[in-house]
Specification:
Blueprint lengths: L3 H7 L33 H12 L7 H15 L26 H13 L12 E3 L3 E2 L4 H13 L4 E6 L2 E7 L7 E5 L9 H10 L18 H18 L12 E5 L7 H8 L3 E6 L2 H9 L5 E3 L2 H14 L3 E6 L2 H10 L6 E2 L20 H10 L1 H24 L3 E2 L6 H7 L21 H9 L6 E7 L4 H13 L7 H11 L11 E7 L1 H16 L6 E5 L7 E2 L17 H12 L4 E6 L9 E9 L3 H24 L3 H13 L14 H13 L1
Parallel strand pairs: 3-5, 5-16, 6-7, 6-10, 7-9, 8-9, 10-11
Antiparallel strand pairs: 1-2, 3-4, 12-13, 12-14, 14-17, 15-17, 16-17
The protein binds nicotinamide-adenine-dinucleotide.
Nicotinamide-adenine-dinucleotide binds next to helix 7 and strand 7.
Length: 678
């Protein structure tokens, strides 16, 4: 019979190697945001299993002390976080030289993990949540400690395997293999649903990685600002006849939400030179964004907000105005007073509409919180009534020439759930989509992802601002702003990136680029590392990209050949990146849209200046992007077909993408009509 002494002796990496004695419980600093209690539905037997699962990390001599502590965490928080093992000092992504390790990659990933958990960056740092309410780096602090120790031990000839936050161990591989392979929340199909998911997380066998939280590549709010900037600018291009060499000056964008992601709207509006009114019911959120200078002015009545907007539009000044109040009140004013809105969206948290994500008209933020707690059924009725009215107002504005788009927040679905069938294209159910487009379906998909433009990013691991400035300039020199309007937008973005003061945490930058752009910039950066102009660089991207994510309601919403319910693309992207030697590869279930609704993946590549890394850049970066473009081309997306035709020409002899033949529409229609008549 194996006993715990045998187990302890068989491992060189376990918690006792870090702590001789059980650490003291670290202090919980007041004011640090905390996650609420998570759904807890475990039976008595399952609760015992969850406890045993957590104790697997703990040497036997501490079991008696920690078992009741863990049980208490499970019952009060719904999860076992192992708070006692949280570092008492401030976690922050430090310069790479301050980390221990046997290889550069091992040290680099410690920088990334610590940046994801920085108290100034993470949403609920004590619960290891980086962003998106539930997106965690790993499940608990025991895993955090062990992962860090494994990364210190990792060599260039090993791979660390992390399964839903659990470090399975180090396995021999080779220098050209990934150093870290991560999966998060991949569930067997028959069990891939929210109930089984909640059970698995409470049992301590699953981690919700969102996208870059569990993939260790989050860089703070900057990433979302660029995406929002690109979205609204391209909405203008596509729907307001704005010429390619211009921006949104003099145009009005109206939306709601100044929260986690939605808070980027104000900053993005100003960078795009537009005027924006963003409604927000929570005063504290407005205060944060105002202090941060992501909104310039605050107005507390709709009339004042529109007056200010009109004045700024007249002088073509770019300003984001926060309206302290409900978006429905703001739109009601616009309709009754005939105000002209060019672009309209919504970023209330409609993915959690009855849990407080959407504040109904007629209730203040405080009253909504009280009613939600006391009488959730009545609250739900208020939400439904408000959504129905909200929809009618949008419809009136759209009839008057406003362009409305859904911002991936499930707003259209929420309106449908509130009883509005006419919001569905088929007037019955959402199977054929909604009458208003979503931002990926109409804008990001065709204008960015189909060409391969996506959220490329990098972190200067030295922690030096000078390095970031040098990479900004180098990246700018790689872009030809005359090639396409997308290149011009990206050129403007990187030109002003430092001025816009977007860095929070490590010295990081986001820059939308296509396959060729990403490869050229990566090779240039690696050369700069080789020449000792800058320190090592971590390359990566958001998973919300051309090829990394299969998500029928978001990233692949404009894939219309029926394959948008398939997850082959994201899986191939992950496998192909691993095969080509990316330093880290990650594959997750869920992402921004919830468990079972998406499969998404990302990568990390450490630029060490070597020729080996040049080789990885040349094969892996184009693959990472073009796998997605090729799939979109096969779905007959025009811009992807054009991009692939060029690619086949440019990469003749090395790459070759299969393209679809296009049949005559009449031929197909006549034949099918005939067959169905019979
Ligand atoms: N920005 C993006 O790139 C992006 C991409 C995909 C999805 N989303 C979605 O956008 C939504 C918002 O994300 P978040 O992280 O900002 O959430 P959040 O909950 O932090 O912010 C939403 C804000 O809306 C405010 N609000 C709610 N009801 C309101 C109302 N009726 N009028 C005015 N304000 C109201 C809330 O007070 C809150 O501050 C989510 O559903 C998210 O999934 C955003």
């Amino acid at each position: 019979m194996i006993d715990n002494a045998d187990i302890s002796n068989a491992m060189k990496i376990h918690l006792e190697k870090i702590f001789r004695d059980l650490p003291e419980m670290p202090a919980f600093v007041p004011g640090v945001r905390r996650a609420s209690k998570r759904s807890f539905t475990l039976t008595r037997a399952e609760t015992a299993l969850a406890l045993k699962n957590a104790l697997r990390y703990i040497p036997e001599k501490w079991h008696e002390k920690l078992a009741p502590e863990f049980l208490d965490e499970l019952l009060t928080m719904g999860r076992i976080y192992g708070y006692r093992f949280r570092p008492p000092e401030k976690i922050t992504g430090r310069p790479i030289d301050e980390y221990q390790g046997n290889c550069l990659e091992g040290k680099a990933f410690q920088v990334m993990i610590d940046n994801n958990l920085d108290v100034d960056i993470a949403l609920y740092p004590y619960e290891l949540v980086t962003y998106g309410e539930t997106g965690q780096v790993c499940q608990n602090w025991m895993q955090y400690r062990l992962i860090k120790l494994y990364l210190e031990k990792l060599t260039r000839h090993q791979t660390l395997v992390v399964a839903s936050g659990h470090p399975l161990g180090l396995f021999a591989s080779s220098e050209s293999a990934p150093r870290v392979i991560i999966t998060n929340a991949l569930m067997v199909g028959a069990f891939d649903d929210p109930d089984n998911w909640h059970r698995a997380v409470a049992l301590g066998v699953a981690n919700y990685g969102q996208m870059t939280a569990g993939g260790w590549m989050y860089i703070g709010p900057q990433g979302i600002v660029h995406g929002t900037y690109s979205t609204i600018l391209n909405a203008g291009r596509a729907k307001l006849n704005i010429p390619p060499d211009s921006d949104l000056r003099g145009r009005l964008f109206v939306s709601s939400g100044l929260g986690g992601m939605s808070g980027a709207q104000g900053k993005a509006v100003e960078i795009a030179n537009a005027v924006g009114i963003i409604a927000e019911v929570d005063g504290s959120r407005i205060q944060t964004r105002h202090e941060q200078q992501w909104v310039s002015v605050v107005a507390d009545d709709p009339g004042k907000a529109f007056d200010l907007a009109e004045a700024y539009q007249d002088t073509q000044e770019s300003r984001a105005i926060a309206f302290y109040g409900n978006i429905v009140d703001l739109l009601e004013y616009a309709v009754t007073h005939g105000k002209k809105i060019d672009l309209l969206s919504d970023q209330t948290s409609c993915h959690a509409v009855y849990e407080g994500g959407y504040c109904p008209q007629g209730l203040t933020f405080e009253a909504r919180t009280e009613l939600l707690e006391k009488d959730p059924e009545t609250f739900k009725k208020h939400v439904d009534a408000s959504l129905r009215h909200h929809y009618q107002l949008i419809k009136t504005l759209v009839d008057g020439g406003t362009y409305f788009f859904d911002y991936g927040n499930s707003f259209l679905k929420a309106v449908f759930d509130a009883g509005v069938n006419e919001i569905c294209k088929n007037g019955q159910d959402p199977l054929d989509g909604f009458i208003f487009p979503s931002y990926v379906e109409d804008i990001m998909g065709p204008l960015l992802f189909d060409y391969g433009y996506g959220p490329f990013r990098w972190v200067c691991l030295s922690g030096k601002k000078e390095d970031l400035l040098m990479t900004d300039r180098a990246a700018m020199a790689c872009i030809d702003p005359e090639r396409r309007f997308q290149d011009r937008d990206n050129y403007m973005w990187i030109k002003d990136a430092d001025k816009n003061n977007l860095v929070v945490g490590t010295q990081a930058r986001i820059l939308y680029q296509d396959a060729a752009g990403r490869m050229t910039i990566a090779l240039r950066f690696n050369e700069m590392v080789r020449n000792h102009d800058i320190g090592p660089v971590m390359l990566g991207r958001d998973h919300h990209d051309t090829g990394g994510t299969d998500s029928p309601f978001r990233e692949t919403a404009n894939v219309k050949d029926g394959s948008n319910i398939m997850a082959d693309m994201a899986t191939h992207c992950f496998a192909g990146n691993a095969a080509r030697g990316m330093s880290l590869v990650a594959l997750h279930n869920g992402g921004g849209v919830g468990i079972g609704n998406a499969v998404n993946g990302g990568f990390g590549l450490v630029l060490d200046g070597s020729e080996r890394v040049d080789g990885i850049i040349r094969s892996a970066i184009p693959w990472d992007v073009m796998g997605g473009v090729a799939r979109r081309a096969w779905a007959r997306n025009e811009n992807s077909m054009e991009t692939c035709i060029q690619y086949n020409r440019q990469r003749k002899g090395t790459d070759h993408i299969t393209l679809p033949f296009i049949p005559d529409e009449d031929l197909v229609e006549d034949l099918v009509a005939g067959a169905f008549k019979r």
